[in-house]
Write a structure and sequence with these properties.
Length: 840
């Protein structure tokens, strides 16, 4: 109030009206402040009143509930005590002790297991009481458990004719049972025991209870949401699609990742290729591809990225750590659909993919998968009459521009679709409200079709039912394509030569000049060889001494060949230049590159950028048109040349010309390490080698069929007077040292060795020639040769493409004789004798 008085006193008397207004405003503020304070106090009073009232009501309710529950609990305790007393009285009346009955029974039931769908082994078929052998075989071969002991096993009588009957088995300890139950998931990966199930041994009461609970769930329609386990109803967790499909390698299209984002899934390693440029207004990325590889696969394969230079195309290589012939090159790609807001060029996409196939086709087994939005309709993906592959099942008859480009791409690089061709379920890969189509594919070379055992197309609606998944918004349009590849089925024979893989490789280009200069050791060997030839008449022992001498001397004097540990540096790379390429194509291609760079680097003027893009498209269309026309003319010319060679009598030039065209001829065609027997296809090492051995033994050691050519006998008798008039003494004259020298000089250097592993470089010295002269002279005089010379290396050559490549009789044998020196001397003498007869 003092402040207000002073202010009024200092004011101008003429402004008394303003002073009154100021006093009124001040009074209003005070009243409002008092009103707010009063309202706040009233609110606090109401809240305290409500809290107090609620607390009193809660205390009253708790008191009533406590009293009621106390009564019920006391009654329940009395009833339980009464039941316990009755049980104790009953237990006291038992005559048998707990150690004799209760404990063994509980332990046995606790350690029991039930085995379903286990086929009896051979011993059990003959002796039904030998069920334990069948169970032990299951644990040993199916689960790889050798430390679990089965104390007893009994097979129950099956209810049906084709049933195997349940097996009740008992293990020694409960810990062994727990280990067994944790390992039973391995049955899913086993071929022989995939249908075998192991469960706990339940009492009849527990089984009846579980069955009743399952019937209740079925009646209320909740059998998919809940499950019965151990007498309890538990929620049924949705099974992951990855666990359901059990995939080793997963290709993902349209990851929608940006920058360096990746996908993290337990048990898988991610290799991604995200788009570098995206719309600034979008929160997520667009496009993008990637590959998920199971961690277990990385134990046998090392993974590297082959190529990620092209947007939405990723190539990875899985290099086998122990066998280079099992390398895999996998490509995942994505081509946006026609009419997409993102600018895309289908021709450029397939041209880039074609160039990459040319580059990496020799790196390993090639597989390409992805969403390419190409509808091929009823067009075939191979050249009819030229390619020998089966037709695919066509379910989508519509086509688009991308589909024509896809067909051209496949026929250019000898790839084909696995959809509808390999065994498995074929279906539409994209199903939505707008329609259904086949736009996702898996491609593989023609020669790898036999390695693809199955290819299944899954609909997302079916996966939702099978796995119990619940999608947040709607069911996805695209379903996965799962194909199975048995990489080890077609291991070539030349990769499985186990006997002599540890032999050292010598650098024959640095062969020493002082070879066989150890006079004492050489003289001892010469004495042994002469003793075996003269005294024992044993050519095998003598030749063994000779081979041992050469091997020991080479080990001491010849340097070893350094084998590179990394990739081969001297491997000749494939030329990327096409055989039909011309200077005009080169010039036009350079112009395309220049226009493309100008268009991509222009970021200022919209009109200029649009103009540069139009120029690029025009020059690119000219280049593509010229490229197609030139390629078509070249192919027609090649076909005309082949037709002329085929009509001529020169078959050598015809097949040589065929071998020099195409791209598939550079893929290594190895003989599959697999044979066809009466029991089916087998890939065991012993079975395959024995099959080849027995089939070729029948060719070279066929028995006498009892037929005799009388005409030939009459011809021999009629011309018998002619043969004695010809002098053949030159063929049987004694062998000279010069003959051996000439034969050694005629041998080619730096060539593969035979069964004795003696290179031709080691024979070109006087000591070896002397030893060879003694050995070969003994063979000429006595008509005996070392057993090692009777062996030969057979190089099978396919007879034709129509034959079964798993049948040894479908190959033409080329026998490489290894006793070249003796054969050279014989051929030389025979040649000069025949020549002299013709001249005379």
């Amino acid at each position: 109030m003092k402040n207000n008085n002073k202010r009024v006193k200092n004011d101008d008397p003429n402004n008394s009206e303003s002073a009154v207004l100021y006093a009124i405003n001040t009074l209003t503020e005070k009243v409002n402040s008092v009103f707010d304070s009063l309202s706040s106090r009233m609110d606090n009073l109401e809240k305290k009143f409500e809290d107090g009232l609620s607390e009193k009501i809660a205390d009253a309710v708790r008191k009533v509930v406590h009293e009621e529950f106390g009564k019920e609990i006391s009654n329940f305790k009395k009833q339980i005590n009464q039941d316990i007393g009755n049980i104790k009285s009953d237990l006291d009346k038992l005559t048998k002790s707990y150690a004799e009955v209760a404990k063994p029974s509980a332990n046995n039931k606790k350690c029991n297991i039930v085995i379903k769908n286990l086929t009896p082994c051979t011993i059990e078929i003959n002796d039904p009481s030998a069920t334990m052998n069948t169970v032990n075989k299951l644990l040993r071969d199916g689960l790889k458990l050798t430390d679990i002991k089965v104390s007893q096993a009994k097979r129950l009588t099956p209810k049906g004719k084709n049933k195997t009957g349940l097996i009740i088995a008992t293990v020694d300890t409960f810990e062994q049972k727990q280990k067994l139950m944790k390992s039973k998931i391995q049955f899913e990966k086993s071929k022989n025991f995939a249908n075998v199930y192991i469960e706990n041994d339940l009492t009849p009461e527990m089984r009846n209870n579980d069955n009743n609970l399952r019937q209740i769930l079925k009646m209320v329609g909740k059998e998919r949401n809940f499950k019965v386990f151990g007498g309890r109803i538990l929620p049924n967790k949705a099974k992951s699609v990855l666990n359901y499909l059990n995939l080793d390698i997963i290709g993902v299209c349209e990851t929608f990742l940006k920058n360096d984002d990746n996908i993290e899934i337990s048990g898988y390693q991610w290799y991604g290729h995200n788009r570098k440029f995206k719309n600034a207004k979008t929160k997520r990325g667009s496009g993008g591809v990637g590959v998920l590889i199971k961690v277990e696969v990385l134990d046998n394969f090392s993974v590297s990225i082959l190529d990620s230079s092209v947007e939405d195309i990723l190539w990875i290589k899985l290099s086998h750590k122990y066998d280079d012939s099992n390398n895999i090159c996998f490509c995942v790609c994505y081509l946006p659909p026609e009419g997409s807001s993102r600018l895309n060029d289908g021709e450029k996409f397939y041209n880039d993919l074609l160039q990459q196939v040319y580059c990496y086709q020799n790196e390993g087994f090639v597989y390409i998968g992805g969403d390419v939005n190409s509808r091929c309709g009823s067009e075939q993906d191979y050249i009819q009459g030229v390619d020998d592959i089966n037709d695919r099942e066509i379910i989508d008859v519509s086509s688009n521009k991308y589909g024509d480009l896809l067909i051209d791409f496949l026929t250019s690089c000898n790839l084909c679709m696995l959809n509808g061709r390999a065994d498995g379920n074929n279906d539409f890969t994209c199903v939505s409200k707008r329609g259904r189509s086949v736009v996702d594919y898996v491609f593989a070379p023609h020669e790898q079709l036999d390695m693809c055992t199955s290819c299944d197309v899954y609909l997302m609606s079916n996966l939702r039912v099978d796995t119990g998944l619940n999608f947040e918004k709607s069911i996805l349009d695209h379903g996965p394509i799962v194909w199975t590849v048995n990489v080890k089925k077609d291991i070539a024979c030349d990769t499985r030569q186990a006997p002599n893989t540890d032999r050292p490789r010598y650098n024959l280009k640095r062969f020493p000049l002082n070879f066989l200069n150890n006079n004492k050791h050489i003289q001892d060997t010469i004495d042994k060889i002469e003793n075996e030839l003269v005294t024992n008449k044993d050519i095998n022992s003598a030749y063994t001494e000779f081979v041992t001498l050469i091997e020991k001397e080479m080990k001491d004097t010849v340097p070893l060949l350094k084998t590179p540990t990394g990739p081969s540096s001297n491997k000749r790379k494939k030329s990327l230049r096409k055989p039909y390429w011309t200077e005009e194509l080169t010039s036009l291609g350079n112009k395309v590159s220049i226009k493309e760079k100008q268009w991509l680097k222009c970021k200022n003027c919209t009109n200029l950028r649009r103009k540069l893009k139009q120029e690029f498209c025009n020059i690119r269309n000219q280049f593509d048109k010229l490229n197609r026309n030139t390629k078509r003319k070249f192919q027609l010319k090649e076909q005309d040349n082949l037709s002329k060679l085929f009509q001529s009598n020169n078959t050598w030039d015809f097949w040589k010309y065929i071998g020099n065209i195409g791209i598939a001829n550079e893929r290594r065609q190895n003989i599959p390490f697999k044979v066809k027997t009466d029991e089916g296809f087998r890939s065991d090492v012993d079975v395959v080698l024995d099959k080849w051995k027995t089939d070729y033994e029948k060719l070279f050691n066929s028995g006498d069929n009892g037929n005799f050519d009388n005409n030939h006998l009459d011809w021999v008798k009629g011309n018998n007077h002619v043969f004695p008039t010809r002098n053949c003494d030159t063929l049987n004259c004694p062998l000279t040292r010069q003959d051996v020298i000439d034969a050694v000089n005629r041998t080619k250097l730096n060539k593969a060795v035979g069964f004795d592993y003696i290179p031709a470089e080691s024979l070109r010295n006087s000591i070896c020639i002397d030893l060879l002269f003694k050995l070969i002279s003994f063979c000429f005089q006595n008509g005996k040769v070392p057993d090692l010379w009777l062996n030969g290396i057979i190089n099978p050559i396919p007879k034709n493409d129509s034959g079964c490549k798993f049948d040894p009789m479908s190959y033409r044998d080329e026998n490489q004789i290894k006793n070249v020196l003796q054969t050279s001397v014989k051929n030389r003498r025979t040649f000069f004798k025949v020549l002299s007869i013709k001249c005379s």
